[in-house]
Amino acid sequence: MNLIEDWTKIRKHFNQSFKTNLHVSIASVDEDNNPTVTPIGSLFLNDNQAGFYFEMFPSKLPKHAKNKKNICVLGVNSNRWFWVKSLFKRKFDSYPAVKLYGQLGDKRKATEQEIARLKRRMRMTRGLKGHKYLWGHMDMVREVSFHEGESINLKEMTTTL
Fold first, then answer.
1. Residue 107 Cα to chain centre, angstroms
2. Is the pLDDT of residue 118 over 80?
3. Are the CB atoms for 10 and 152 separated by under 8 Å?
4. How does pLDDT run across 23-35, given as a tens digit for each residue?
């Protein structure tokens, strides 16, 4: 998978993954080289092989960003119809899962545009009681940059991708 050539497809995949899972998984390594996975519901990919997530609840990722910045982000399209249709056809029309390898960047104040993207993504939960608690005070983001992408290989079902 070519990160630059396939970036539009990758972004589309991660948008689909979020719609079906409401999060992606970010793997990192602690100071003792122990792996850990953190669910992140606010990862946004920009158009330059980079992105950001809102950092309010994660506790381990900020610690890991100090010494070991390498991460792997996994986005899985878990839409049942996508899988049933693909299993029936014996092939996937788009990626079932994508991994992005990169590095954690700086933590900084979110821009108005970034806050607007979060509000747009979370608008369907605006009327629920927990909405304001979870997303009402998001104002700090952590930048991420990516250097490699990998689609999940499911043999004959993914050979045409």
1. 17
2. yes
3. no
4. 899 999 888 888 9
